[in-house]
Every structure is written in structure tokens, then in C-alpha cells.
Amino acid sequence: MIEVGWHLGRGKGCATEAARACLDYGFPSLHLDRIVAVVHPDNPASRRVTERLGMKPEGRIRVYNFDLDLFALNAPAA
Q1: CA distance 41 to 74
Q2: How many other CB atoms are there within 10 angstroms of residue 14's CB atom?
Q3: CB 68 within 8 A of CB 43
Q4: What is the DSSP letter of 58?
Q5: Over 80: is that where the pLDDT of 9 sits?
């Protein structure tokens, strides 16, 4: 499992663009089956990024000493 993350300023669209590039590289070039992201529940901007990427919510997990929302995207069918 590979996690994609972003820590960028607000309102520039860079997070979505950078994360999309990671997905576009990770699936076909690295042959990954699944990519995940974790989002702090108080961060609606990052939640919107995962939605724009087509990532689906999978519940809450405890990582990095925080309770975070888990999102995942599986590789497109060949």
C-alpha cells in the first residue's frame, strides 16, 4: 500500500495537480494496485482533494498519533 500526501498553501490547486500526477505515475509506471491518503477530520480542503481524485472514504484509522480519515483508490481495470 502506498500513501500519497500533501502539505501546501491554500487555494492554488497545487495539491490536486500534484496528487493527480502521483496517481498517474503510480498506477501505470509503478504498477501499484492501491494508493491511499489520510486526512485530518478538521481539514475539509484536503478532503475535497481526495474527492476530486476519485478516492473513496474507508473509515477512520489511528496513524501519526492522530485519528485520521482514510481514503483509497484502486488501480483502474486493465
Answers
A1: 22
A2: 13
A3: no
A4: E
A5: no
| Cβ atoms within 10 Å, residue 8 | 16
> Is the distance from CB of 41 to CB of 24 less than 8 angstroms?
no
Residue among 40, 48, 42, 45 at smallest CA distance from 69: 40
User: What are the tens digits of pLDDT across the range 24-49?
Assistant: 999 999 999 999 999 999 999 899 99
Strand order in the sheet with 2-3: 2-3, 34-39, 66-74, 56-63
pLDDT reading at 73 higher than 90: yes
Say how many residues make up the chain: 78
What's CA 24's distance to the chain center, in Å?
Answer: 12
